[in-house]
Amino acid sequence: MLSNQSKTYISVAIIIFGFIAIFGLSNFIETNRPVMPEEYLDEDLSLQGEKLKGWSLGFEGLIADWYWVRSLQYMGDKVAKSKDRVINIEDLRSLNPRLLYPLIDNATTLDPQFMAAYSYGAIVLPAIDPALAIKIAEKGIENNPDEWRLYQHLGYIYWRLKQYDKAAEVYQKGSTIKNAPPFFKSMSARMNDEGGSRDTARKIYQQMLDEAKDSTTRENAKLRLLQLDSQDERDAIIKVLTQFLAKNGRCIRNWREILPLLTDVKLPNGKDFRVDEGGNLVDPTDTPYIIVNQNNSCSIELHPKSKIPRI
Question: Is pLDDT above 60 for 38?
């Protein structure tokens, strides 16, 4: 028979050995953990809005807000952790934001009148999955048939896809809704003739900016309008650079060589070129343009730090 003291020693030894074994096993697991594909790094949703509907004791709106905030944080985290030097807002698939649609879908299922969530989905999802963008906009229209802004979002998605006939149809339907702005009728009329023009794009984004009820739509519209201004500027500058190259047989060494030539150039909507203190031409975000001189050609491109969206 073992004495009580011996039993105590044995118990303590077993406990100590157990801790050592656990520590060693944990280190082994951590060292030999298999590398998981990137698509498995996201934390999947543990709850689904559709299943919570009717079981949340009247807190559907609060839970919808949680999903909505989570969707904003989710995309923010994706951008912050991206290894890309420049985020192309025209194509966000490289961020692998596979949970964005489920988050927005859950928010709008719990609160079918959640306009900010529909707007966010219609603005961001086209750069990820246009089919899902259409799906969320159509869901909004189904739940809110008298909200003309949802028709504006759906028309915008079809316009981005260059499906001008469908965009025209959506704008026409939206124009019949009470209090819909005259913009709808004009867009419906010009879609098939001028759907792909820069002027049409400017009118669409200006309307978005004027009527935006959420910050995401507003900031996206502002950025797109700056992009269009930059495109107008670059077209004009490249034309002058080409003329200078033909006359002098070389590209410019600095912007000062063509600034006098740009004084006679008229930009759309009465806009003017801008020059910083260093004599550099700057884009609409006040970031200097870059002169591109290679292969006997002379061109211009956006600075890597510019916030102007790339095409």
Answer: no
Contact 106, 49 (CB under 8 A): yes
Q: For the chain, where are the E strands, in sequence order?
A: 274-275, 281-282, 290-294, 297-301
Write out pLDDT tens, residues 254-297. Answer: 999 999 999 888 898 888 899 999 999 999 999 999 999 887 78
Output the CA angle 109-67-128, nearest 5 degrees.
Answer: 85
Percent share of the chain, pLDDT over 90? 51
How far is Cα 49 from Cα 64, in angstroms, rounded to an integer? Answer: 8
How far is the C-alpha of 254 from the C-alpha of 23, rounded, in Å? 64
Q: Are 101 and 91 in contact (CB under 8 A)?
A: no
CA 305 to chain centre: 17
**Residue among 204, 127, 212 at smallest CA distance from 164:** 204
Beta bridge partner(s), residue 294 = 297
Quote the crossing angle between the two packed helices 164-175 and 148-160, to the nearest 10°. 170
Q: Which two tokens stand for residue 168?
A: 């025209």
Give the chain's mean pLDDT. Answer: 84
Going 84 to 88 to 94 to 99, the CA torsion angle's sign is positive
Instruction: Give pTM, 2 decimals.
Output: 0.72
216: nearest Cα among 118, 303, 87, 307:
118
Determine phi and psi for 47, rounding to 5 degrees: -130, 155
Query: Is a pLDDT exceeding 90 seen at residue 35?
Result: no
Q: How far apart are the first and last CA of the chain?
A: 84
Phi, psi of 3 (to 5 degrees): -70, 165
Residue 71 token pair: 């969707």
Does residue 249 come out as left (phi exceeding 0), alpha (psi in the -120 to 50 range) or beta?
Answer: left
Asked if the model's pLDDT at residue 170 lies above 50, the reply is yes
What is the distance between the alpha carbons of residues 223 and 230, in angstroms, rounded to a whole number? 10
